[in-house]
Amino acid sequence: MLASTFPSYPLEQVALDELLGVIRAERALWAPHTGADGHCRLQPMGEGSLPRVAITAFLPLKKLLLPPREEIWSFRSGEYCTAQVPQAFAVVGVPLCDLQAVWYLDQAFADDLPYQARRAQALLVGMACVPGPECRCDGLSMPLAGDLFVDQERVWALSPAGQALLRACGCQVSQEMPLSWPVAVTGKRHALTQKQFFSTTEAAIWTDEAKRCLSCGACSAVCPTCYCFDMLDAAALDGSVTRHRIWDNCFFAEHGKVAGDYDFRPGRANRLRFRMEHKRFGFGALRGQNSCVGCGRCRKVCPVDIDLDQIAERLDGEGGS
Amino acid sequence: MNHALLPIPAVIDTIDRSVINNHIFTLRPEQSIELVPGQFVEISIPGVGSFPVSPCDLVREGLISSCIRRTGRVTEALYYLEEGDLIGMRGPFGNGFPLSMFTGQDALLIAGGLGMAPMRALLKALLDNGQTGRIILLYGSRQPETLLFRDELVSLAGHSRVDVRFSVDFAEILPGPCGDVLCRIGLVTELLADLDFNPRKTVSAVCGPPALYRCVLEELALMGLPPAKIFATLERRMRCGIGECCHCVAGGRYICKDGPVFSLEALRGMAEAI
Amino acid sequence: MKFKTPIKLAWHRFTSCSGCQLTLVNCEASMTALSAVVELHDFALVSSALGNSEVIDVALVEGSLTSPSEVKRLLALRRKAGLLVAVGACALTGGVNVMVKGERRRAMESIYGKPGTEWDTFPPQPVHHFVKVDWQIPGCPPEQHELLEMIAAILHGGWPGRQVMPVCMECRINENRCLLEEDHAPCLGPITRAGCHALCPGIGVPCEGCRGVVAEANQDELCRLFFAAGLSEQDIRHRLERFGEVL
Question: In 3-state terms, what secondary structure has residue B10?
Answer without folding.
Answer: strand
